[in-house]
From TrEMBL:
It comes from the Bacteria. Residues 10-125, 167-282 form the VOC domain. Pfam families: Glyoxalase (PF00903). This is Catechol-2,3-dioxygenase. InterPro entries: Glyas_Bleomycin-R_OHBP_Dase (IPR029068), Glyas_Fos-R_dOase_dom (IPR004360), VOC_core (IPR037523).
Length: 282
């Protein structure tokens, strides 16, 4: 997966603030088939038992997150093969999970929510050689009905949990001001715009992926960030190529007036919609 290995700047990890740690752990392990490592005060979820993709952290006095704030629109887990998508579709159907399903030209996707309302996409990419790029270097990403019966032709066994090579393919954010976010992510973090939906949605990537980060104002135009005691995304992590790249990004963000906090292997910052981002290298 060249789009999710260095030097691409991909989303490595996300932390969610939750109300019911046990119930959320059960959802992500039993419904999504992830593996859980439980500590005294949080749960680390992975596809392979080693690399944490999602961390669940309970809030002491939580308030439910509502749609009229900025934050997470959905987290998207990229499966290795189309057969994997077919198998998890059958699994969801057996559990009676309410699903959305779309064909985006570059990918095929299923949509659902966890029990605390966080959006989730489960998808598989089409061969990158089939993606359609324009002369302006934008990629065609439409939305049509997923051909479910065709997908189910890929079923060749039982669902056995989240495949070990699953990664966070992208994240999609609800944002307050699209132009401010555009400047932060392109001028500051070095992402390139690959698709626009008018003045309401923007998709950005590195390394010619169809998108590592999506953002829209559909339910969040001029909305405030979620409060610290509200459930939902607490932070997400972008993995960079090396320490030098992280330093260059930091200098660019400082020039834009962004706040910077040092981390052991990188730094954290906050985007114009109030999302906390950890920029790391390893």
């Amino acid at each position: 997966m060249t789009f999710h290995t260095k030097p691409a700047q991909f989303i490595k990890h996300m932390t969610l603030h939750v109300t019911d740690l046990e119930a959320m752990t059960n959802f992500y392990t039993n419904v999504l088939g992830m593996q859980a490592t439980i500590t005294a005060d949080e749960v680390h979820l992975s596809a392979d038992g080693t690399q944490t993709l999602l961390t669940l952290v309970p809030l002491p006095s939580p308030e439910a997150h509502h749609s009229r704030t900025t934050g997470l629109y959905h987290i998207a887990f990229l499966l290795p093969t189309r057969a994997d998508l077919a198998h998890i579709f059958v699994h969801f159907e057996k559990l009676g999970i309410r699903l959305g399903a779309s064909d985006h030209d570059v990918s095929e996707a299923l949509y659902l929510h966890d029990i605390e309302g966080n959006g989730i996409e489960i998808y598989v990419d089409r061969d990158a050689q089939t993606w359609e790029w324009t002369d302006q270097h934008t990629v065609k990403m439409g939305t049509t009905y997923l051909q479910v019966q065709d997908l189910l032709q890929q079923v060749n066994g039982e669902w056995n949990g989240m495949p070990t090579n699953t990664v966070i393919g992208h994240i999609h954010l609800s944002v307050a001001n699209l132009q401010a976010m555009h400047d932060f992510y392109t001028k500051g973090l070095g992402y390139e715009v690959v698709t626009r939906y008018g003045n309401q949605a923007l998709f950005l990537s590195t390394n010619d992926y169809h998108h590592h980060i999506g953002m829209n104002t559909w339910e969040s135009l001029n909305a405030p960030p979620k409060k610290p005691n509200q459930t939902g995304m607490a932070s997400y992590t972008i993995d960079t190529a090396n320490e030098q790249t992280a330093h260059e990004l930091k200098e660019r963000l400082l020039a834009l007036g962004a706040t910077i906090q040092p981390l052991q292997f990188g730094f954290s910052t906050v985007d114009p919609s109030g999302n906390t981002i950890h920029i790391t290298f390893s």
